[in-house]
Amino acid sequence: MFRFGLTMQNLIKGGIMKKDFEIFKKEFKKWQDRLELNDWQVYFKNEPLDDVFACIERRYNGRVATASLSTSVPDTAKEFIDATSSAKHEALHLLLSDLVGVAHDRYVDEDQINREEERLVVKLMSIIK
């Protein structure tokens, strides 16, 4: 099976190609579904990013996220120029969003962190077979 990834040849032809962005979106949606993250509304952007190839911005309260793929590859991100693995990487960040949100809460207590950890473990148990 051939999987299209972003290659240096594609970069030479003019940066991140439109089909790379389409692959990024398709792969992200696949992992969003596989990781049971369909309670999140995810939007996608294809724009220049500073020092990264891909990123995700999340709003925990509204469960809204924006997954972005850069239109260029900064020197600091040349080893990460793969739209498929970048989509999976950003989806995993989304998976950890609730735990990160609890950890950043100023008034978090140990029970909240333990509950969120347990919720994540239960979810992974149902996914990983």
Task: Tell me what you see in this structure.
The chain is an alpha+beta fold and 129 residues long. Helix content is 47%, strand content 14%. It is built from five helices and three strands. The chain is globular. The relative contact order is 0.17.
Silhouette: globular
Helical content band:
40-55%
In the sheet with the most strands, the strands line up as 1-3-2
Radius of gyration: 16 Å
Comma- or semicolon-separated keywords:
single chain; 14% strand; alpha+beta; 3-stranded mixed beta sheet; 129 residues; 5 helices; globular; 3 strands
Give the SSE map.
Blueprint: H1 8-12, H2 18-34, E1 41-46, E2 54-59, E3 64-69, H3 83-95, H4 97-104, H5 110-127
Parallel strand pairs: 1-3
Antiparallel strand pairs: 2-3
In brief, what are we looking at here?
Helices cover 47% and strands 14% of the residues. The protein has helices at 8-12, 18-34, 83-95, 97-104, 110-127; strands at residues 41-46, 54-59, 64-69.
